[in-house]
Every structure is written in C-alpha cells, then in structure tokens.
Amino acid sequence: MAISSRLPCSLDARDEWSRARALTLKTLHGSVETPIFMPVATQAALRFLDLECAHQLDYQVLLANTYHLLIRPGPEIFQRYGDIHRFMKWDHAVLTDSGGFQLFSLSKQISLSEDGASFRSYTDGRRILLTPERSIEMQKTIGSDIMMVLDHCVSSTSDEATTRAALELTTRWAHRSYTARGDSQQALFGIVQGGCFTHLRRESAAQITSIDFDGFALGGLAVGESKAEREDTTEFAAELLPADKPRYLMGVGTPIDLLEAVRRGVDMFDCILPTALGGQGVAFTSHGKIDLRRGVYRIIDDPLDRSCPCSTCARFSRAYLHHLVKAQEPIVSQLISTHNLTFYRSLMRRMRVAILSGTFRELYEREAPILLSSDTENPPVPPARRRALR
Ligand SMILES: [Zn+2]
Q1: What distance in angstroms lies between residue 123's CA and the mean position of ligand 1's atoms?
Q2: Which residues are catalytic?
Q3: Which of 15, 146, 217, 370 is in Cβ range 3.0-4.6 Å of 360 for a Cys bridge?
Q4: What is the pLDDT of residues 26-49, one digit of tens each?
Q5: Residues 100, 102, 107, 111: is their CA dihedral positive or negative?
Q6: Among 210, 236, 271, where does a domain finish?
Q7: How far is the CA of 20 from the centre of ligand 1 (A)?
C-alpha cells in the first residue's frame, strides 16, 4: 500500500467473500487497527463515562468536535495545555470533526456563504465565522491526529440542485482546507458528498480524491435516507475511494450498520448511539437490542448479556437495571453505556479477527440476524435460558 508520510497505512488482510478489509494506521499517538469504531467525545469527554473506561476497553481513537471546542473552552485553553491529549488525559489518537455536521444540524441559526459559516456562540452570543481555514487552524490547535475538512452537508433527501450545490462548495472548501494544513504533521481527510444520487457521488469522489488527502470520508449519510439507500450508497461510494487509504463512514451507526458497512469496504466509524441509547435504557446484546424500560424485565435475574465481560454484566440483573431506569437514577446511564461500549469494541474486534482469518462470511451470516433483532420481537429471556428452565 502507498505510504503517506502523515498516516502510514498497511493492508493486513482483504476478505475474499466481501469487500471487507483490515488495515493498520500509524498515527502520531499510536497504531490504529481497522475496522474501528471511535467513541464520540464531542466536548472532550465521553457521555456518562470516565475516559478510563475507553482506556480499559482498548479503544484506539476518540472523536472530538471542532465546532463545540471552538466555542468552549476556546483555542487559548488548548494552547495553554499544549493539546487535547494533555488537556483531557488521553494519550491515544484523536480525530476531530471539522464542524461541518453542526453547520447542517444547526442550519437555522447559521448563515452560510462562500467564505464560511457565521453563527452566534451559545455561551456568550459573540459572532463566530467558521471558515475552512479557521476550522483547520482550530484543529491544529486542538492537536488531533486526524483532522477533517470543513464540508457542507445537506439532508440526504434534498433535491438534486441543492445536493449538487453542497458538493461543489465542499470541493472548493476541501482545496482551501488542504492548503491551510500546510506542513503540519496532522493527517487530513477529505469528505465526499452527493446524497443518494449516484452520479453526484461519482462527481464528488472524483473531485475530492484528486486531492492528496490521507484518508476519505463518506459524509451526508444517516441524515434522512432509508437503511437500504444508505447501504446501496455506501457500497457504491466506497468503491470510488482509493483502495490504499482508510475509508470513514461518518456518524454511523447501529451494530448492524457497522457490520453491513464493513462488508462494503468501510474501515472507520463514529456514532453517539452506544452512550445516547445507554442513557435511555437501551442495550445492545449478543441476543439483539433490548429496551430496559419495558415491564418484562421487572423480575429478570439474568444480566444484560451473559457472554459479556463488562462490569455491569458481572454484577447486575436486568431487574435491577430496569428498576434504576424507571427510578431515573443517573448511574444507570453509566452502567448501560459501559456495557454498550464493551459490546461495540467486541464486535469490531470479532470483525477484524474474522477478516484476518478468512471467516468474515461465517461471522456475517451468524451475527447479522441477531444484530437486526430486538426484544420487541424476541422473548425477554434468551433461548439458552429457556431450555435450561424446562
Ligand atoms: Zn455487559
């Protein structure tokens, strides 16, 4: 594989049945083995959890957000502490999102121009202009290992003219971001837009991959399209990206989304779901997704998942967790999020091992039906337990 001076990338294995692959990336803060899920630490913290949890689970990259960190605590704090690693006490890699997604999700409060996006700070009302150059400057100050270009993301259900205008602005901003990176040793990824229009994805990919980025992301998915549209677009668009650089599907997803996208050749993921759903009482398990708000768990002695090594499963019954959810005890968000991040880490590790050992198809066929299932269609007691009770 091609050696990028900023993010050396080696191919460890390629699956023969699918497009799945296993890479090793060398960042400024350690090696990263793909396929990889990156927990979201938007404000330089995991939701509900100490970063020590991510250390113990051997997560290799966290995702932080330029838009939010620019507003608070602001660049001067990162300058004072050196970088985000020293500030939040995390010595592995960090990827920073550029703020592009917030320009989409907060679009009603933002005025967009060729130059960049202008908005008011939610802390003190001052006006901030986020340009491609300002975003890169802030990401350099944060000191992330992988920076993202500022892009213009629109809903994946937007019409063709809107989607085209967004991808063309994204390309112009990509050139400006690349120039702004200069001689920094931090890696920089380009972002392909184009919604669910095949010809627009093709145009965007041709334009963005003509720039010598260290990796490429698929943006503008998981923002309104169906699961089938997302999978079809991912499969088509991933093929348009260079084989010798990492591919990142932004903001995706559920465990089944990750399995489907790895099968289609994607290497990197981030999503708020493991902790966001953990905070709502929803857990991912080796028997499918379960919702602890449901009354069926009121007297269930089993842990969330008997095959899970996490501290929550080692100690607590579903009945106890159900009670904490109903009583709205804040600690339950931590307990379930710990389990969910353990589940995601374990899933990514199983996928990598399967790709390396040539057994990805077996893993896919065994796990896809389970990851698709939830307790609204399954009995609350795992099948093995029911057999034992008979
Ligand atoms: Zn667990």
Answers
A1: 37
A2: 97, 270
A3: 15
A4: 999 999 999 999 999 999 999 999
A5: negative
A6: 271
A7: 27
